[in-house]
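Make up an example, fold above all:
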Amino acid sequence: MSAACYNHIARQMNASQRKAIALQAINNNLTQVASVNQVSRNFVYGQKDKALLGIEQAFAPAPTDVLYQLPITIEWLKSFVLGLALHCRASIRATQQMLEDFLDYSMSIGTISNLINEKAVVANAHNKSQDLSQLTLGAHDEMFAFGSPILSGIDTPSFYCYLLAQEKRRDAETWAIHLYDLQKQGFNPQRVIADDADGLRSAHAMVLSNIPCDYDHFHISKDMMDLRRFLNNKLRTAETEYYEAAVMATDAALDKTKVKYKKQLSKLEKQFNLLNHISPTINTLISWMEHDVFNMPGSPIKLRRELFNFLLREFEALAKTHPHRIHGLCTKLRNQRDGLLAFVDVLDCKFHDIAKKHKCTLDVVWRICQLQRCTYYGDTYHQRSLPILDEIGEELFELVEDDVLAALNSTEKTSSSVENLNGRTKSYLHNRKECSQSFLNLLRFYFNHTPFRRSYRESRVGKSPTEILTGNKHAHWLEMLGYARFKRAAA
């Protein structure tokens, strides 16, 4: 018979027939067994090796350090690949290497990529089905990956990511299209916080004109800190140059050198005196702005606006003598004034409700708010709280203070949550050579359905952003994507 015929007969054999050939081959001549069963010698060798391996495994000493057995199926491997990509931020090639090194299984790059794209479709269906009407405070931002902008949006109280889109541009039209799509899912927050990006703000004014878009404090604070550092460095440089010139004008060996430095001395002294006035003044104004205007516990809105305007006038006066960088800061402060102080209006509304709830004056609530600037139960706190305690009593004071603290903790003035989202997203893209929208859809789904393992707010621990937003539990994210999670058998 031909080799092809032998192969055909071997492929038609079931497990029992293969077992019988293996048992015959152990104690009999392989050529004879192959001839009787009309199969090739190689096939008989293969069945014999399987039988001998099974016997060896059956009589091998039982391992004492095995915790439990894991049945590895194709579906389990697929869920494991997603776990590596999302939990471990593994690239496709790293995932491929993990399967080969630890599970002795080969999976092609195309198969891994197709698996991720396939489940991204399922994940995006969940993303689009989510009702966004419960969002209260949005934060919008932009970041860049591989030369393309990624538009991002997150609900600050729940950390629910409702936007993570890669685009070719970040202009007003692109932002507006995404905002219109979000509105179809019920997106209608009370406020939005964002930076001063032109496209973002133009789109917000076009689509969400009835919703305030406050300015993020992080960027203006960073600008002020950069200005402070720049002027401090300029002052040190001017001081060094002035004193070096003064020494050279006195101690130089050559008269020509002395004359040279004496001519420079007047100019350097004037520059040093100017910076010696501007730098400390800027330090004071910035500290005042940070601690008395932008600080959450503080004065009512009217006093803050007056102080803001006063500080702005002082900045503008300094800009006339030293416009470099100071003029740009003045322009930002002037243009962003209402947006930067919007958080105080939010606090004022909350404090009106607290005053009405406890039947006390609004002034008392704001004084208790100012009290939170002091170290809790320190000497200053004790001295400043005595007049309020005498006015409303200890019991009412504690009730109002608890509500004031809750109001302060629930009021935001920065878009730090979306900056955190951008940082987490970049960590996934770092090991990848490209970024696809399908992967961003899967990543957004993963972010929204993975419980927080730790948080500075204990109410978030053990809950996913979706659970915090809706108040309802949901299945594990792997189960939502169609996989069954492995469960150990009871001991």
